[in-house]
Amino acid sequence: MLETKIEAATRNPDWQAYLVPENWSRFMPVDHATWDRLFDRQVKLLHDDVVSIFIDGLKKLGMTEPGIPRLERLSDRLEHLTGWRLVSVEGIVPDPEFFAMLRDRRFPIGNFIRDGKNLDYLEEPDCFHDIFGHVPVLAHQPMADLMEALGRLGVEACANGHGDLISRLYWHTVEFGLAKEDGRTKIWGAGLASSFGEAKFSLEADVPRPRFTPEAASLTPYRSDRFQPLYFVSDSVEEASRMLNELTDAKLAVLGAGEAPSYAPLDGQPA
Ligand SMILES: [Fe+2]
C-alpha cells in the first residue's frame, strides 16, 4: 500500500504546491525600469543571432510593451496561440514538479527581478530570464509541443531514477542549445538568449560546438556555475524537437548505459 502511494506521488508530483501569488503591484517603477534596460540591451545584442521563432514570439505576444509583463495577460495571449500558461513561483522548482508543470503546459516564472544596480549578477533565474528567455519560443507550436513532451518524459525519468539524463537533454537544448537556421548557427536556448555575457560567447568562443543528438547530449555533463564548456548545435529547432519527441523513458535508460563522448568536459563536477 505504501509503495503504491509513493509510486503515485512520484508519477504525479504536486506542482501546485509551488505556486505563489504574482504580486505584480509590488514591482516598483525602478523594477520596471530594470526590465526595460535589460530588454532593450538584450534585443540589440541578439539582433539576428537568435532563431527567428524567438523574435516572432516577442512580436506575436506583444512583449515589446514596456515594463514587467503581467502574467495573466501574457498567459491569455500565449494560451490562445499554443495552449501554454505561465505560473508564478518563488524560485527554482525541484525537477519532478518542474517537469510536471511542463507536462501540464504550465511554465514557472520567478516572481522577482534582479537588482538594477548589478544587471548581470543572478543567484537564481528571475522573471527576466524566465519570461524573456523562455516565453517567446513557447508561442511556436513545435517548441510548445516539445516542452510538453519533455515534461512527460521528465516526470517518468525522475520517477525511474533517470533524472540526470533528462536534465542534461533539457539543459543542452531548451536552456543552452544552439540551432542552425539559414546556414548559420544561432542562439536557441533561454539561458543564452537572456544572458548578456554568454550569448556572444556561445557563438564566438573557442569551445566545442558538436552536433546535437540525444545520445551525446544525455551523456554530457553541464555546468550551472559558469559559462558552458561546450554548446550543442541542432540541425534545426524542429529537427531537435522530432528527435526528442521520439524518446521514451525506456530509450533514455538505454542511452544512459552508453559511454560519454570524448569532448565531454573533464574539469569540475559533473552535473
Ligand atoms: Fe531557464
Automatic annotation (TrEMBL):
Residues that coordinate or bind Fe cation: H129, H134, E175
Entry keyword annotation includes Transferase: no
A Pfam match: Biopterin_H
UniProt entry tagged with the keyword Iron: yes
Annotated SUPFAM superfamilies: Aromatic aminoacid monoxygenases, catalytic and oligomerization domains (SSF56534)
Cofactor field: Fe(2+)
A GO term for molecular function: iron ion binding
InterPro entries xrefs: ArAA_hydroxylase (IPR001273), ArAA_hydroxylase_Fe/CU_BS (IPR018301), ArAA_hydroxylase_sf (IPR036951), Aro-AA_hydroxylase_C_sf (IPR036329), Aromatic-AA_hydroxylase_C (IPR019774)
Annotated Biopterin-dependent aromatic amino acid hydroxylase family profile domain residues: 1-271
Keywords assigned: Iron, Metal-binding, Monooxygenase, Oxidoreductase
Superkingdom to which the source organism belongs: Bacteria
PANTHER family, per the entry: AROMATIC AMINO ACID HYDROXYLASE (PTHR11473), PHENYLALANINE-4-HYDROXYLASE (PTHR11473:SF24)
Family of this protein: Belongs to the biopterin-dependent aromatic amino acid hydroxylase family.
Name by which UniProt lists this protein: Phenylalanine 4-monooxygenase
